[in-house]
Design brief:
The complex is a heterodimer of chains A (279) and B (745). With 279 residues, chain A is mostly helical. Chain A has one domain (9-91, 106-257). Chain A is built from 13 helices and no strands. In chain A, α4 packs across α5 (67-88) and α5 packs across α9 (140-162). The longest helix of chain A has 33 residues, at 225-257. Chain A is globular, with a radius of gyration of 22 Å. Chain B has 745 residues and is an all-alpha fold. Chain B has 2 domains: 18-539, Cytochrome c oxidase-like, subunit I domain (Cytochrome C Oxidase, Chain A), CATH 1.20.210.10; 559-744, Four Helix Bundle (Hemerythrin (Met), subunit A) (Up-down Bundle), CATH 1.20.120. Chain B is 68% helix and 0% strand. Chain B has 21 helices and no strands. In chain B, α4 (71-105) runs parallel beside α13, α6 packs antiparallel against α7 and α11 packs parallel to α14 (425-451). The chains are: A mainly alpha (279), B mainly alpha (745). Chain A binds chain B through residues 104, 173, 176, 180, 183, 187-188, 191-192, 194-198, 227, 230-231, 234, 237-238, 241-242, 245, 248-249, 252-253, 255-258, 262-264, 266-267, 271, 274, 276, 278-279, and chain B through 197-198, 289, 292-293, 296-297, 300-301, 303-304, 316, 318-319, 322-323, 325-326, 329, 530, 532, 539-540, 543, 549-553, 556, 580, 584, 587-588, 591-592, 745.
């Protein structure tokens, strides 16, 4: 089989997925209508990438052949798709409860933040424990469980940063720390996977080869098991961190741009009484 | 928040000149301005020394087959030149300016921890003296500033030089980390009312980011040199490839530090440029937000690209490709900054003072250095140019054309504030033109030398066509650079005596440091002007046309912004990084040794360790109870729970001792396997932290008996509590790695 043949034949049109995606789209348009085309675009992109992660040849490779393909799928499902669909939801205007605003409370509890962070980073580490990684590569129901849990934990992870409820967002500078530490945690795992001399996920070292494309992968693409694991580690290390870094830039932008109207009114309130006479 | 501290002991009364003489006053000072000047003076002294070393090298290379210096002495020269310029000139120079101006620019009275600040500067001076003391012990280190193993191992560098290098760098590292903690805490906790983070002057922003870089980067160096020291003194072989260690891991650790270090040296200079360019263009900085944000982005990216220093090592094409891409990315935020600076000057009414000239020279030369830097991120080009004079030219364009010219701009800009007198503009122009011309003369030709094949770090070369001419040009340039430094020194000395009095604000600048006298009084400000925008002094001078105000709430009194709390958290972050490095080393060595030594971990006593782990974790619980009791004002309960904590900690330490003794009995000693070396290093450092925590707890107990907490000042307990809990959390990770994951690696 050549690469082109594989790219055409490797699709897996799963009816459950089709129903799920169509349902999600239908739900989106019914509930939110089309208010903002940019957000609709982001939501559509999320669905598209989800389909690519689950139905495309990437999935075939991830399930049977390549650790690096598994990693690409993992990153799409954990980091990219949840972030995009959260960004795709229309924003809600900030309406903090009066008593909350008066008490100056942070709108999101630290326990929720710790939970979210642990979910995001935990999903990364947990599914790369050798036992779980092998199980997911070999057993279909574990793989489905993995898909669902990655989406759920990814959503939980991005929630404090990208939630559509603006009043429940983490403060921007705290969000920078949140993302930076997550980046550190996944860098460490990436470094380990890249340089580890032992096979982290042994299933990929002795694949079943139901399609007979193993020679193509090893010789044609040059992805021997050792190179494959290195590539997987590098994917987790570099591109994953760039995703977090984009989040950091987004948070800093949110911080600097702020809510202009809110900022102006705050200023009017504090500036008037303290205007000094010494100018 | 505006008072310097809630619970600090009163600062010692600074001795005045009349009481004890000026020398005593300077030695005992805890004033951030004097400490800043001490930093700058030491940097200046070492700058002259490091410059002379460079001149010796250039004189040796002036002619082919020259024999002015012996090969070994030449190696010592380039090692000492590099180490000196990075650790004893670059960092102290920038830290010195940060020390002097960060508190002034945010309207604070001093740094957050003045005594810690004094400790840092004396550690710098002590570390510098120690490094140079190596000359009289039989030879300075001769292994290059990155001291690649195994050359730096005992077997190949048997003189004391490398030991002094390690000791000196450890001391300097501790001092730098202390300063970083101090700077972070100062910026977070001591800002004047109205000075929100969104209004911070860009120099403060960049120093703040630099402090975080120091916090996370220096521990990697410290871990590496501690391991190297053990190799040399306790005959382990972490990096000794001849006995099974890994020389590559040294490179990884070193460049994990080394690449962020480049930005530690560059970002503060970016900050200075961002202050100087707007003032002398009579325009606010263009795109403040972009300059600040790109600083954060550069800092974050800088931790992910160190492998581009190791393309020639053979990490594999896959790794090379990824790091080539991520290294190229750094050009984006840097380019954003350059365009912002150019746009700041665009259409402004430029005043070409010496400070401004140096700022413009910075833009030109740093861009050249940045562009040649991008050529290194392309792997095939990198292989051709690595370890040639092209590299030397590149990083001198960054570090002299960038950092040094930026600092010169800062010096001409701020000297009036520090001394009360202007630097002579006439001598300044001489200095500027000499510095720029001589610098380009010295280093531009080195690009060509590198491309036609001259390797770096060779003490002489045969008479190959063009090499002699180009090297001679470079040497002439270097001598002229020496002259330019003499002009600068003359200018400083002359201006200190005869310079024009500066007045408060000679440049009509806009940031807070210009709102006080020159030099500022010891308490900095009689009254901090109101801060409503990023240019408070502009608003004062032009009430009819003020800058658009920047909103944002000044944080209310929050226990999370209390300075001891912030300081301890910064300390915890840097310590955590140190332990992460040691854990990485343990995992790496235990995993790589498994084939040779499959039963290494069988000697560990998992059951006993689990029991003692419980003791340590219980101590966190008892300490939490003790803090609660103290909060409720029940002092007796506090003593009981605190004593219980100390006892539990002691039991843990005794348990560790028992484990060590058991291992010794079974013949597992520090130097007989990589597993043993990394085990003892990791758990030993943790044990050391437990001991330090115990001492702290004993001190807290003693202070409690003495009645220190009766008045409700309990920050010491809270702060030390954080440390103790941190040490316990580290143990959870160490225990998991060593006892649970280790056997499966």
């Amino acid at each position: 089989m050549t690469t082109t043949q594989f790219l055409f034949s490797g699709w897996d049109w799963n009816p459950v997925m089709a129903v799920f995606c169509l349902g999600a789209l239908l739900n989106y348009f019914v509930v939110f209508r089309i208010v903002n085309w940019r957000r609709v675009g982001l939501f559509l992109l999320a669905v598209l990438l989800f389909v690519i992660a689950i139905c495309s040849p990437l999935n075939t490779l991830a399930r049977n052949y390549l650790f690096s393909a598994h990693m690409a799928q993992h990153l799409l499902l954990l980091l990219v798709v949840p972030a995009l669909w959260l960004l795709g939801l229309p924003r809600q205007t900030p309406t903090p409860l009066p008593q909350e605003a008066a008490a100056g409370k942070t709108p999101i509890t630290s326990r929720r933040v710790v939970l979210s962070w642990t979910a995001g980073v935990g999903a990364m580490w947990l599914w790369h424990l050798p036992a779980l990684c092998n199980a997911a590569a070999g057993t279909p129901w574990v793989q489905q469980l993995q898909t669902v849990s990655l989406l759920a934990m990814g959503t939980l992870f991005w929630w404090p940063v990208l939630s559509p409820q603006r009043s429940r967002l983490l403060a921007p500078l705290a969000a920078v720390g949140y993302l930076f530490t997550a980046c550190m945690a996944c860098t460490l795992l990436g470094i380990y996977l890249t340089f580890s001399p032992v096979a982290v996920c042994a299933a990929y070292h002795h694949p079943q080869d139901p399609l007979g494309i193993l020679p193509l992968i090893h010789q044609g693409w040059g992805l021997t098991p050792a190179v494959d694991q290195q590539l997987g580690g590098l994917l987790m290390w570099v591109p994953a961190c760039l995703i977090y870094l984009s989040g950091v830039i987004g948070q800093l932008t949110r911080w600097y741009v702020g809510d202009q109207a809110e900022a102006a009114s705050t200023f009017a309130a504090i500036a008037k009484p303290s205007h000094p006479g010494n100018t | 928040m505006n008072a310097p501290s809630s619970n600090a002991l009163p600062l010692p009364h600074a001795a005045t000149g009349q009481e004890t003489g000026w020398l005593y006053g300077w030695i005992t000072t805890v004033d951030h301005k004097r400490i800043g000047i001490l930093y700058l003076l030491s940097a200046m002294v070492f700058f002259v020394i490091g410059g002379l070393e460079a001149l010796l090298m250039r004189l040796q290379l002036a002619r082919p087959n020259n024999s002015l210096l012996s090969p070994d002495f030449y190696n010592q020269m380039f090692t000492m030149h590099g180490t000196t310029m990075i650790f004893l000139v670059g960092m102290p120079m920038l830290i010195g300016f940060a020390n002097y101006f960060v508190p002034l620019m945010i309207g604070a009275r001093d740094m957050a921890f003045p005594r810690l600040n004094a400790m840092s500067v004396w550690l710098l001076i002590f570390g510098g003296v120690l490094l140079y003391f190596s000359f009289v012990t039989g030879g300075a280190p001769a292994v290059g500033w990155f001291a690649y193993a195994p050359l730096s191992e005992q077997a190949f560098s048997s003189s004391q030089g490398v030991n002094y290098w390690i000791a000196s760098l450890l001391i300097l590292g501790v001092g730098s980390i202390a300063t970083a903690i101090n700077l972070i805490t100062t910026v977070v906790s001591l800002r004047a009312p109205g000075m929100t983070m969104r209004k911070l002057p860009l120099f403060v922003w960049m120093s703040f980011i630099t402090a975080f870089l120091i916090l996370f980067a220096l521990p990697a160096l410290n871990a590496a040199i501690v391991m190297l020291l053990m190799d040399r003194q306790l005959s382990s072989f972490f990096f000794g490839s001849f006995r099974g260690g890994s020389a590559i891991l040294w490179q990884h650790f070193f460049w994990t530090f080394g690449h962020p270090e480049v930005y530690i040296l560059a970002l503060p200079a970016f900050g200075m440029i961002s202050e100087v360019l707007p003032v002398f263009s009579r325009k606010p900085i263009f795109g403040y937000e972009f300059v600040a944000t790109s600083g954060v982005v550069i800092a974050l990216l800088s931790f992910g690209v160190w492998a581009h220093h190791m393309f020639a090592v053979g990490l594999g094409h896959m790794a090379d490709a990824f790091f080539a891409a991520s290294s190229m990315l750094i050009a984006i935020p840097t380019g954003v900054k350059i365009f912002n600076w150019i746009a700041t000057m665009w259409g402004g009414s430029l005043r070409f003072t010496t400070a401004m000239l140096f700022a413009v020279a910075f833009l030109v030369h740093f861009t050249i250095g940045g562009l040649s830097g991008i050529t290194f991120s392309a792997v095939p080009t990198n292989w051709q140019t690595t370890d040639t004079y092209y590299v030397v030219a590149h990083f001198h364009y960054v570090l002299i054309g960038g950092t040094l010219f930026g600092t010169y701009a800062g010096l001409y800009y701020w000297f009036p504030k520090m001394s009360g007198r202007m630097l002579s503009e006439r001598l300044g122009k001489w200095h500027f033109w000499l510095a720029v011309i001589s610098f380009d003369l010295t280093f531009f030709v080195q690009h060509i030398l590198g491309l036609i094949g001259m390797p770096r770090r060779i003490y002489t070369y045969p008479d190959i066509p063009h090499w002699a001419t180009l090297n001679m040009i470079s040497t002439v340039g270097a001598v002229l650079m020496g002259v330019s430094v003499l002009v600068l020194l003359a200018n400083i000395i002359w201006s200190l005596r005869h310079g024009q009095p500066a007045g408060d604000n000679p440049w009509k600048a806009w940031t807070l440091e210009w709102a006080t006298t020159s030099p500022p009084p010891e308490h900095n400000f009689e009254r901090v002007p109101p801060v409503r925008s990023r240019r408070p002094l502009w608003d004062l001078a032009h009430p009819e046309n003020p800058d658009p105000p920047i909103a944002g709430k000044t944080a209310p009194e929050s226990p999370y912004l209390e300075k001891n709390f912030v300081g301890m958290w910064s300390f915890i972050l840097t310590e955590a990084t140190f332990f992460i490095m040691l854990i990485i080393a343990f995992v790496y060595y235990t995993g790589s040794e498994r084939n040779k030594n499959p039963h290494a971990l069988a000697d560990l006593n998992l059951q006993a360790a689990s029991v003692f782990t419980v003791f340590l974790l219980l101590s966190s619980f008892t300490l939490w109870r003790a803090e609660k009791k103290l909060e409720q004002g029940r002092h007796k309960g506090f003593y009981v729970w605190l004593s219980a904590t100390i006892l539990l900690g002691l039991v843990f330490i005794l348990g560790q001792g028992r484990e060590y003794l058991g291992l010794f009995h079974r013949g597992v000693t520090f130097n007989n396997s990589l597993f043993a070396s990394s085990f003892f290093t990791l758990t030993g450092f943790h044990g050391l932290h437990v001991c330090v925590g115990l001492m702290g707890l004993l001190i807290v107990l003693a202070l409690g008996w003495a009645g220190d907490y009766k008045a409700g000042r309990t920050e010491a307990v809270r702060t030390l509590g954080l440390y103790w809990h941190f040490v316990d959390v580290v143990w959870i990770f160490v225990f998991t790695t060593v006892y649970l994951v280790g056997p499966r690696l």
